[in-house]
Specification:
The structure holds 2 protein chains of 2 kinds. Chain A contains 12 helices and 2 strands; from the N terminus they run H-H-H-H-H-H-H-H-H-H-E-E-H-H. By secondary structure, chain A is an all-alpha fold. In chain A, strands 1-2 form a two-stranded antiparallel ribbon. In chain A, a hairpin with a 4-residue loop joins strand 1 and strand 2. Chain A is globular. The model of chain A has no long low-confidence stretch (mean pLDDT about 95). By secondary structure, chain B is mainly alpha-helical. Chain B is about 70% helix and about 0% strand. Chain B is built from 11 helices and no strands. The chains are: A mainly alpha, B mainly alpha. Chains A and B meet through helix 3, helix 4, helix 7 and helix 12 of A and helix 1, helix 2, helix 3, helix 6 and helix 7 of B. The complex binds fe (ii) ion (FE2) (2 copies). One fe (ii) ion binds next to helix 7 of chain A.
Amino acid sequence: MTQAEKERRFQEKIDKEIKIEPNDWMPDEYRQTLVRQISQHAHSEIVGMLPEGNWITRAPNLRRKAVLLAKVQDEAGHGLYLYSAVETLGTSREQTIDDLHSGKAKYSSIFNYPALTWADIGAIGWLVDGAAIMNQVALCRTSYGPYARAMVKICKEESFHQRQGYESLMKLCSGTPQQKAMAQDAMNRFWWPALMMFGPSDAASTHSDQSIKWKIKRFTNDELRQSFVDATVEQAQILGLTIPDPNLKWNEERGHYDFSEINWDEFWQVVKGNGPCNKERLAARVKAKEEGMWVREAATAFAKKRAMKQSA
Amino acid sequence: MQQPALFEYVLRIADDSLILGQRLGEWCGHGPILEEDIAMTNIALDLIGQSISLYDFAAELEGTGKNHDQLAYLRYENEYKNILLVEQPNGDFAMTILRQFFFDAFRLPFYEALMQSPVAQLAAVAAKSVKETRYHLKHTSEWVIRMGDGTDESHQRAQSAIDHLWRYTNELFYENEVDQTLQAEGKVPALSAIRTQWLSTVTNVLSEATLQIPTNDWKFDGGREGRHSEHMGYILSDLQYMQRAYPNMEW
Ligand SMILES: [Fe+2]
Ligand SMILES: [Fe+2]
């Protein structure tokens, strides 16, 4: 079969909504795009454990401490599923993680912002997991089978996280003025970075068209961002929080909310590594890997010894 | 208070769980392997869950209308009755695992015995926790063996963790008049019998791991009487930060 024929058949499958599975033929570029996207997603889960993990020892009561522990544990689980999905494409977890540590692979920029107060933990659940769900629900129908199936599992847990985050902010917003102010401050700091989670605008996005044709993505960055804004405005109103955008306004004609232009300069700065916590986040991951080296070596050495004993 | 000895006894178990859970929570996101991040969080979660049930019961015994959070968060350092072992810093992965292993090897026979208590609330917490603890002990035992019989480095790290932590293990079996009162009433098990089971688990696992039981017999205690190590104040400043900085608020 010629290359062109293979490509034609591949696209035919995609058009017929038949999932691509690990052993199926796929164009190199499709494979690379998936490896890049899924590993970026996996790294986001893992790096995302850091700002929230920071608050576990300081959670204000035992129930919140348990909920936060469980959430961060879920995120680690998501990382595991996704690293496994990358492995089905022929890239090992080790390699994928090395690419993160060398700076070659990216993760969601949102986690380069600091979690400064307890309200930030609520805001992260509500806005960050909320924005993640917007992306991920669409990915449950992505064309690559293992990725789509991982997403179905993950989405259920993410929507649970979002509800818990919202409920936690609800408590603050119906509490003392000091608590309410803490919630508003978190909203002010997380709103724009949350909108940035959908990536560059469609006009500036380099990978979008081909990804849509391959049905890796079903919606463009701007479409998803708009859905998120539309879904979130009312939730903010119920909390009694003000969204920090003077131009946020319902547009009858479009049937959507209008909102201000994102500060793209800030966006690209953070992507390039100049966000408030980029250095700290990466350093924490590199340190965990280096300090854990002897543990992994011990596990390998032990497994080998046992296997030898068994065969002896 | 009607039953001060029982109140004190319940607090001890609750504080051991809470402080160890708090320590494990510090690992979150920094574990040597993703699977271990998940496992340590899991153990922390179980311990925090146990502490909630126990503080609920303690609050009921105290009878002043407090809830579990007020007991967990709003006492002074010398009112916490956990043993020194659980407040020791995480150190490296070997230190954390060995600390957990010594504790689990105690907790399993302890909960098994406590299930027989005529105090229904204690028996219920023990019955629920015994399953969790069995899993924790299995997990930590496997790691002790893996580290001991792994590489030279892991063996040496595990051995130095044992040598360091051994001095704190005697306090697992600390008894005072609280125990004497409750044991006389037939409500709680004698810790001497549990010590025998603990030593047998420890001996078996360490021997399979090719690790040595230390010969030093330093015996640190004080935790059960509210005298802690220097680490405790720092643990409480994190734990209590929100409750102290924003008093009387709901979260
Ligand atoms: Fe997640
Ligand atoms: Fe999440």
